[in-house]
From TrEMBL:
GO terms for biological process: seryl-tRNA aminoacylation. Keywords: Aminoacyl-tRNA synthetase, ATP-binding, Ligase, Nucleotide-binding. One of its GO terms (molecular function) is serine-tRNA ligase activity. This is serine--tRNA ligase. InterPro entries: aa-tRNA-synt_IIb (IPR002314), aa-tRNA-synth_II (IPR006195), aa-tRNA-synth_II/BPL/LPL (IPR045864), Ser-tRNA-ligase_type_1 (IPR002317). The keyword rRNA-binding does not apply. Residues 12-252 form the Aminoacyl-transfer RNA synthetases class-II family profile domain. Its EC number is 6.1.1.11.
Amino acid sequence: MGLYALGVATRRGWTPVSPPTLVYGHIGAACGFHPRDQHGEQQVYALAQSQADADRGAPARCLAGTSEIALAGMAAGATLDAQDLPLRRVAVSRCYRAEAGARGLDTKGLYRVHEFTKVEMFAWTAPDRPAARAVLDDMLAVQADILAALGLPCRVLAMPAHDLGASATLKVDVEAYFPSRRQLANGGWGEVTSASLCADYQARRLATRTRIPGGPMAFPYTANATALAVPRVLAALLENGWDEETATVAVPECLRPWMDGKHKIGGRKRGTRASAAADEQPSSVP
């Protein structure tokens, strides 16, 4: 699933990057990620530091909660050529979140986990709102292409100010419908992707600059978006593609090349009508 999302992004001009899993704590803080969130819950898995390292001032390290941190850090202290903007990057990485499952029933199971794979888009743009918004719109188009091909029922939300992270000036969430969550507060809808415009919040704190042609040095704007978070989208696919009669799950056409051409997975024990239906294969992979 991650490879499919990566392919959609790269076909639209996003350059793939392989980011590290370990990041410096101060880079994460500069991106707006702090040890505790607005609910007072632990967000970051920090690595233990020896006393010797602490005494010599070695920077603290942590497990990346998103590759956004590593991608933003690529340009820390750098000056970007204005002619190269926007710089668009996409990464597939393992991510680690300490707060998984901390908020009760609505975050249990595959919906929120401690470790997962995520495809993330990140961009530096010219330091003006129209240029940054154009890149954000491209990110939203990538998300729409992926979720539409997966056949998930979705809705798009412009998030209010109190739901923005420390760095974001604009945030758009896409929610998918989860039948198992219909009794919860949001009536079954749950976030599967988000996209944020951060203006110069991250670039200013990371000392990332660009020179405006004929003008002074400036801080580029940054934007980031989830192309696909594997466990959460997998949960949505399992729930929306479930067939109770045959005990099978439908495989979206776009994922069949990675599933040996299967149209369905699952099924009851062999010899039943359900298992026969699940084993039906097309003559060739579409």
